[in-house]
Amino acid sequence: VSQSVEEVSKLTNEIYQKIAESANLIDSVAQKMRDINADNNRDIDYITQLKTKSKDISKIMEIINKISDQTKIISFNAALEASSAGEAGKRFAVVAAEIRKLTEDVIHSTADIDNLVSEIQSLSDKMVLASEKTTKNIHHGLEAGDDSVENIEAIVGSIKRSNEATKQIVLAVQQQQTAALQIQSGLKELSEGARQNSEAIQAISESDTEYRSVTDNLTTIIAEFKTKEE
Fold first, then answer.
1. pTM (2 d.p.)
2. For the chain, what is the total number of helices (H) and then of strands (E)?
3. Distance in angstroms (rounded) separating the CA atoms of residues 128 and 122
4. Which end is more exposed in the chain, N or C (fewer Cβ atoms within 10 Å of the end residue's Cβ)?
5. Cα–Cα distances in Å, from 169 out to 11, 108, 126, 161, 203?
6. What does the pLDDT look like over 86-139, one tens digit per residue?
7. What is the DSSP string of 51-120?
8. Fold for domain 2-229?
9. Would you kindly state where each structural domain of the chain is located, as residue ranges?
10. pLDDT tens, position by position, 135-154
């Protein structure tokens, strides 16, 4: 029984160690998730800043577009003035045409930039939403991890108490075994004493028998002696 209880105690202690290691592992994973969450929040800040900068670029593009539109109008008016100036205005008309062409190129370029900025803003919005979703998932994971750690700690506490109780049982069983051995030894001593008493009684009985035999012989001799005297 004692050996079985000790084996149970050993097994319980091993389970306790394994669960404690699992709790430490979960805590380590939770810490890594917290680190990932911090990095994710920082990325959200960067994305938000990028979105703000892209809006600033859009505002600058609006200003450039306005300037380009005004420049285009000015170059168009200049071309009209050059055509009305006759031969003297031909060179000026060429310059005005180049300015108008450059202005149109700028307008096309700013349109492309606007499209890119819009795509960046749209992508930034998606990244923010994805990061926020990741943050929520991380929070849920952390909460689940904390609950798991609490449950494991409760189990570890129960196993620890059970292990202590098992040790007490082992100690009690060992004490009972010691007491049983002492009782067994005492019973052997009592048995030996009883045997010795029995032998002593038997010896006394034999001595009494011999005494009675001697007494009977003496009585017979005395009786015969008295008969002869008469």
1. 0.47
2. 2, 0
3. 10
4. C
5. 15, 89, 63, 12, 50
6. 666 676 677 777 777 887 887 788 888 888 888 888 888 888 888 888 888 877
7. HHHHHHHHHHHHHHHHHHHHHHHHHHHHHHHHHHTGGGGHHHHHHHHHHHHHHHHHHHHHHHHHHHHHHH
8. Helix Hairpins (1.10.287)
9. 2-229
10. 888 777 777 777 777 777 77
- Evaluate the CA torsion angle 124, 130, 136, 141 in order and state its sign: negative
The alpha carbons of the chain give a radius of gyration, in whole angstroms, of: 57
Q: Is the pLDDT of residue 192 over 60?
A: yes
Q: Which residue has the higher pLDDT, 213 or 35?
A: 35
The tokens for 3 are: 């050996």
90-229 helix and 2-84 helix, angle to the nearest 10 degrees:
180
Of 48, 42, 58, residue with least CA distance to 113: 58
Token couple for 177:
């075994």
